[in-house]
Amino acid sequence: MTMETAVTREWFDEVMVPCYNPMEIIPVKGSGARVWDQQDNEYIDFAGGIAVSCLGHCHPVMVNAITEQANKIWHLSNVMTNEPALRLAKKLTELSFAERVFFANSGAEANEAALKLARRWATEVHGPEKSEIIAFNQGFHGRTFFTVTVGGQASYSDGFGPKPGDIKHIPYNDLAALEAQMSDKTCAIMMEPLQGEGGVVSPEPEFVQAVRELCDKYNALLIFDEVQTGNGRTGDFYAYQGLGVTPDILSTAKSLGGGFPIGAMLTTKALADHFKVGTHGSTYGGNPLACAVAEAVIDEVSKPEVLAGVAEREAWFREGLEQINQKYGVFQEIRGKGLLIGAALNEEWQGRARDVLVAAGKHGLLLLVAGANVVRFTPSLVITQQEVEEGLTKLDQAIASLV
């Protein structure tokens, strides 16, 4: 293979495991909320790599951080610690309830650590019979066997043989169902403080309060999966801060590294003490490159003006989507918080979320879906008003082509 060999989409079908169905375009360059494909066609990015590119593409603070660290040291293993990991952990504890941090490489790994810690704590403090984990229908917590089983979408976890046991699912926002399920055998409740993959579904404030109270009543841990909602996505640094409810364990990833793979589990000292030396680990977790980038990202995202700007951008999106809806009558409701927005399709448009995504791509706009009936928007937290307006114009044209 020579340098001149053109890489094409056909290669995917020849060399990749077919668990994805990528679009025809292959982006090769990005800047801010714009990307360009191999043919130099320009796209506005409202997808943000699934809520990952919180500062857009190639933000100077990220480029500088990775360049600087790349010339120092890349990897050490956890036989030693490193400066970027310690600085990042210190900042995460200052920005949240947490006192201790465990670094991983992804949201699934952060959730795996959270679930293992909860079970470990319950076994050591209360005994082996306290092992039940309660989660929610349509929840999503990752693709490892433990996390995908805790996730509430059977289509993702079926077909791989016997599943990890003692996991129960109930409807999100259904307090009566939760009260009926809770007992002294409950080890933990795992929930997203705003369901992402499951359709961008917000929690009722009184439901979240009741979840915390039930955990306290039955000596169970509350695990918040903030993989998608964290790092400024909802306008608070973490979504729990806007709900007035503090979890015992929190997982974070996606936008934590702004596009560089990193995840983290945050918790209290008392719980962290149950992970003694040798009980859990990760080869790459906390590596200097990832932590240096993540530190630069959270320094930027945690600025008051960036967090305040999220609500402002949410308003631009809601206003623009309402205008599109007045013209074409496609959306039943616009839901979500901050820059995790779901446009739920109405009766006539059921099942057509992917049609909208594909049409948008043809008109130079990158979108996401959350199930078959919800179009999802998770753009950069610093996207400009001009980019938002340009993208919404393209969405207008895409929907017009489908009417």
Secondary structure: elements and pairs:
Blueprint: H1 10-15, E1 27-31, E2 34-37, E3 42-45, H2 48-51, H3 60-70, H4 83-95, E4 100-104, H5 107-126, E5 132-136, H6 145-150, H7 154-157, E6 167-170, H8 175-181, E7 186-191, H9 205-217, E8 221-225, H10 240-243, E9 249-252, E10 263-267, H11 269-272, H12 288-301, H13 304-328, E11 331-337, E12 340-345, H14 353-362, E13 365-366, E14 368-369, E15 374-377, H15 385-402
Parallel strand pairs: 3-13, 5-6, 5-7, 7-8, 8-9
Antiparallel strand pairs: 1-2, 2-3, 4-10, 9-10, 11-12, 12-15, 14-15
Helix pairs in contact: 3-12, 4-12, 13-15, 14-15
Describe this structure in words.
Pathway: Amino-acid biosynthesis; L-arginine biosynthesis; N(2)-acetyl-L-ornithine from L-glutamate: step 4/4. It is found in: Cytoplasm. β7, α9 and β8 form a beta-alpha-beta unit. This protein has about 400 residues and is an alpha/beta fold. The strands form three sheets. Strands 4-10-9-8-7-5-6 form a seven-stranded mixed β-sheet, with helices on both faces. A four-stranded mixed β-sheet has the order 1-2-3-13. Strands 11-12-15-14 form a four-stranded antiparallel β-sheet. It has two domains: about 150 residues, Alpha-Beta Complex (Aspartate Aminotransferase, domain 1); about 230 residues, Type I PLP-dependent aspartate aminotransferase-like (Major domain) (Aspartate Aminotransferase, domain 2, 3-Layer(aba) Sandwich), CATH 3.40.640. The mean pLDDT is about 95. Helix content is about 40%, strand content about 15%.
